[in-house]
Inverse folding.
């Protein structure tokens, strides 16, 4: 990509010399004779770097520098001056100038400075791309009212130091909420440390959280900081807190009260400043009643409760989520992108998703890899999604049947409807697959009033 450079100088000779040099080096150059027009050109053209003369008629370079930096705080501006002084250099630096060059301009110095400045710009852009790629998997997607309310609550709570307890079924995106709370908080530049309490054996959870000293137990071959220390000044996310042992719960409660931890085998207390966010797919009130969770810890953690809705409560978001996953998976995994047909999106929306958003993402990835055509169709969904479609007279109503005969009829109807969809309503293929005479299948289609959906 050719870099754009703007030269603002009231001396025609400087403009011509710089323009010729920069164009010879392969840069795209615009030259402007005064600061007012130069600022207008900056807004329209968005150059990567600006050469700006200090002394000009009308608006001088220092004033122009202030205005450019106000328009774009990331602007890279190099000041040029015929009488540069220490005071001028200090003032320009304080206003955000990248460098100040003296006239007459030295070609070699200009080229070295340009390489350094544009290399720095390349690094900034690469950092921005990396940050975007890192943040992309943690974006919360959805426009339904329930998701808008969730995002509004996250924005309100994120700015405060309040502890948050996130609840929701598996796969709903509780970790995404925790990361959003951290990213929007004053602690965003500090560590976000995650602990999956369900994945760590009970005998190791205390060492994981609070750290240990060398020799404090078998296998402790060196001093080790725990997650609370690692998250100091940042956020500690305790995922699946409902699976934490009662002994560890007591110690976590103590830390929340005193903001002090002690490593296993250590005697020196260590102060920590950590915002704790917890999450669980369990009903902690029931766990408290069963004696499996401390009530006092529950109240310490549950300062602000946030519930993440299951996907069945926001089905309208499923098409948006599916298309989002196509975009992110294609970019990150190098999978060729595919479009969903309208009836495919309708079919996805009708499916039951017990694994919630996580299951939907995995299904989209499977469809991207295995679907045979450039578009993903409803038939692909039926063949590859590996689920049954809910409908008012199918599986969704099985539990409402009053008699065994009603149950058998509802189950048979749901089975045949699913198979017909799987074979794109080809009755012969469906009959062959379910090992039923084609005439019998026609009779059952008529009996159950089965009909093909139209998008």
């Amino acid at each position: 990509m050719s870099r754009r450079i703007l030269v603002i100088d009231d001396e025609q000779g400087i403009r011509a010399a710089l323009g010729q040099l920069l164009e010879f080096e392969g840069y795209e150059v615009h030259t402007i004779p005064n600061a007012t027009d130069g600022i207008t050109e900056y807004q329209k053209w968005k150059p990567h770097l600006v050469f700006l003369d200090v002394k000009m008629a009308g608006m001088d370079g220092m004033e122009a520098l202030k205005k450019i930096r106000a328009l774009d705080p990331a602007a890279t501006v190099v000041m040029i001056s015929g009488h540069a002084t220490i005071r001028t250099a200090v003032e320009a630096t304080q206003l955000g100038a990248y460098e100040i060059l003296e006239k007459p301009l030295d070609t070699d110095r200009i080229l070295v400075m340009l390489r350094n400045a544009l290399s720095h710009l390349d690094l900034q852009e690469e950092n921005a791309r990396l940050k975007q790629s890192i943040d992309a998997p943690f974006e919360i997607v959805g426009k339904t009212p329930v998701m808008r309310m969730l995002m509004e609550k996250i924005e309100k709570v994120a700015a405060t130091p309040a502890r948050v307890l996130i609840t929701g079924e598996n796969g709903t995106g509780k970790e995404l909420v925790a990361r959003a709370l951290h990213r929007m908080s004053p602690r965003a530049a500090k560590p976000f440390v995650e602990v999956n309490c369900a994945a760590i054996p009970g005998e190791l959870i205390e060492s994981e959280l609070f750290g240990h000293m060398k020799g404090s137990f078998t296998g402790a071959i060196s001093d080790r900081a725990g997650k609370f220390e690692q998250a100091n000044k940042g956020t500690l996310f305790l995922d699946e807190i409902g699976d934490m042992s009662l002994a560890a719960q007591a110690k976590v409660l103590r830390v929340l009260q005193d903001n002090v931890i002690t490593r296993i085998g250590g005697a020196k207390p260590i102060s920590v400043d950590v915002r704790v966010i917890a999450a669980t797919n369990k009903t902690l009130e029931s766990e408290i009643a069963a004696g499996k969770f401390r009530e006092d810890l529950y109240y310490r953690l549950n300062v602000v409760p946030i519930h993440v809705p299951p996907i069945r409560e926001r089905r309208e978001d499923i098409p948006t989520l599916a298309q989002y996953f196509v975009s992110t998976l294609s970019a990150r995994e190098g999978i060729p992108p595919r479009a969903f047909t309208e009836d495919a999106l309708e079919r996805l929306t009708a499916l039951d998703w017990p694994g919630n958003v996580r299951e939907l993402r995995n299904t989209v990835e499977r469809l991207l890899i295995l679907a045979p055509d450039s578009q993903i169709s409803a038939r692909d969904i039926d063949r590859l999604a590996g689920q049954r479609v809910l409908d008012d007279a199918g599986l969704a109503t099985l539990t409402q049947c009053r008699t065994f005969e009603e149950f058998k009829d509802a189950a048979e109807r749901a089975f045949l409807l699913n198979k017909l969809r799987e074979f794109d309503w080809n009755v012969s293929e469906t009959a062959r697959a379910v090992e039923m005479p084609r005439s019998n299948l026609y009779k059952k289609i008529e009996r159950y009033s089965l009909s093909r959906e139209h998008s």
Summary: The first strand starts at residue 4 and ends at 8. Residues 145-309 form a domain with the Rossmann fold fold (CATH 3.40.50.300). The chain has 19 helices and 14 strands.
